[in-house]
Amino acid sequence: MRKIANFAEQKIALRFWNFLQKVDIQSNLEKEDNKEEWSIWVIDEENIERSVEYYFAFKKDPQDSKYDAPKKETSANKLEDNYPTKKNRFKNYNLSQKWKNQNRGTGPVSLALIIVSVAVFLISAMGKNFDVVKPFLITTQESNFFKDILGGQIWRIITPIFLHFSILHIFFNMYWLYELGGQIEKRKGSKFIATLILIIAAVSNLSELIFGGPIFGGMSGVVYGLFGYVWTKCRFDPGDGLYIHQTTALIMLGWFFLCFANVIPGIANWAHAGGLFTGALWGYISAVRWNRV
């Protein structure tokens, strides 16, 4: 769900909301807290761009007859009489509270990644069985690290994310994948989270290969990418509904810098950096795009 428009007048807001219903775009009309202002929230992500186009056209001529509601629709006067009972044809939400209390569970893509990671962890005896680990490494070469990838083994750009080498390693990565990945997938859909994770995994793994070395594994580069995405969206585009507590963000950033300072050795720091940069950049570009609407 995303807010696409604000109106100073309830009557005009209702007129545009009725039009969206007429063109089969599900949306909610909400009165802003402590403001004499009305907002339109589009429910389905795939309808947002079309809704924004309709909004700009509506602003040019709100009285155009094509925006007239069918006579059977609830009138503005009746709406005022009934507001804010449950009988209203639009829903009134305290959206910020709803987002904080939402069930963030996991979606099919996030769940599949968790299952595969745990399976690889167990089958590889916590990363100690090299015969199992070897196909997941980004390279098997002691030099010319890109030979395997350029030779057609493209999957190696992604597969290191499934390798984990201790119980704590996999526990924390799966926990944050569940929390952050599940939240994004529920709001953006499985196709979006799959694309986001593939790109973050590729950038984070290649960053570690180039600047750190070939022997590494773990989902933490992806986790930091998801964190970067949620964090920037939360700060610059809160209307998108993604949320992370400020204390959690400080802990994540603190851990990032502690590891980079080599206070905690044996960490794929460049994977963290590549993932964080990619996710934060994606989130910021998306936020700027929507804030221009």
Mean pLDDT: 85
- Gyration radius from CA atoms, angstroms: 24 Å
Calculate the terminal CA-CA distance, rounded to whole Å. Answer: 15 Å
Sketch the major β-sheet: 3 strands, antiparallel
Count of helical segments?
12
Strand content: 5-15%
Shape category = elongated
CATH-defined fold name of the largest domain: Rhomboid-like fold
What is the CATH architecture annotation of the largest domain?
Up-down Bundle
Identify the CATH homologous superfamily of the largest domain. Answer: Rhomboid-like
Work out the count of structural domains: 2
CATH class of the largest domain: Mainly Alpha
* Helix/strand/pairing category: mainly alpha
Poorly predicted tracts of residues: 73-96
Spatial strand sequence of the major β-sheet: 1-3-2
**Extended strand count:** 3
